What we know:
alpha/beta, Rossmann fold, Dihydrodipicolinate Reductase, domain 2, 2 domains, six-stranded parallel beta sheet, five-stranded mixed beta sheet, 8 helices, about 35% helix, binds NADP nicotinamide-adenine-dinucleotide phosphate
Amino acid sequence: MTTRIALIGYGKMGQFISSLAPEHNCQIVATIDPVHPESARSICAESLAAADVCIDFSHPSAVLQNIKQVLELGKPLVVGTTGWHNHLEEVRHWVEKSGTGLVYGANFSIGMNLFSRLLAEAVKSFDKFSAYDVYGLELHHRQKADSPSGTAIELSKIILENSSHKNSALFDPAYRRIEPYELHFASIRAGSIPGTHTVGFDCEADTVELTHRVRSRSGFALGALQAAKWLKDRQGFYSFSQVISDILC
Ligand SMILES: NC(=O)c1ccc[n+]([C@@H]2O[C@H](COP(=O)([O-])OP(=O)(O)OC[C@H]3O[C@@H](n4cnc5c(N)ncnc54)[C@H](OP(=O)(O)O)[C@@H]3O)[C@@H](O)[C@H]2O)c1
């Protein structure tokens, strides 16, 4: 059955989701955006009436109010917008009170989510063989605001949690010999690279590398559509990672 979606925020992500929706058995029945000419201007019973589920890719300054309004109208919501995760417990309470459902995530890429799971398993395996040393490398376009990337920080946490040899991450140049317990995770900023993360395991005999390479933002859009279809008939508060775990079971 087709999933009918209201998009809250019709910028880059909203438009990506809209273009991918038909081939994933989803229909965009409404868009809500303060600047897009053909969109509704506000979240209300009328603008959400035809939707089974909403997806928010708007703005950190607006997202909490959007969540509140959508839940009060009793609609389930997938939230891709970031910048509000220090309010998770408050929002969990709103969701429970509303009796509807919400999925949130800082990274809706299915590929990156599976990469993180493979990485945890790989670190556990290589950890049994002390000859192998683990390292990380991330590359992004020169306009990127942050360095290291948020994803590199998350990946380094996965490595540290699953390695008995490493207990701290070093993202900057050391200007000295690094200690055996330090995980070196380097960043490069150049050109237009959309985003590459590599974790390697190296010993005298060979190197094994796991790489996730972004080709376009459609990975985030696909993940959000997948989450919307999964959430449609559910209640409760879920991370995107829980959605992937459920699909894998
Ligand atoms: N979780 C993930 O995997 C993931 C992936 C990509 C992006 N994101 C996040 O998602 C958000 C949107 O990304 P984007 O690249 O699509 O940004 P974008 O191109 O700037 O689009 C956001 C759109 O939402 C509109 N908007 C602002 N306030 C709104 C409100 N109250 N109600 C409805 N729409 C509103 C904006 O209008 P104005 O131009 O007037 O502000 C803009 O048209 C960002 O926070 C980004 O970090 C998350």
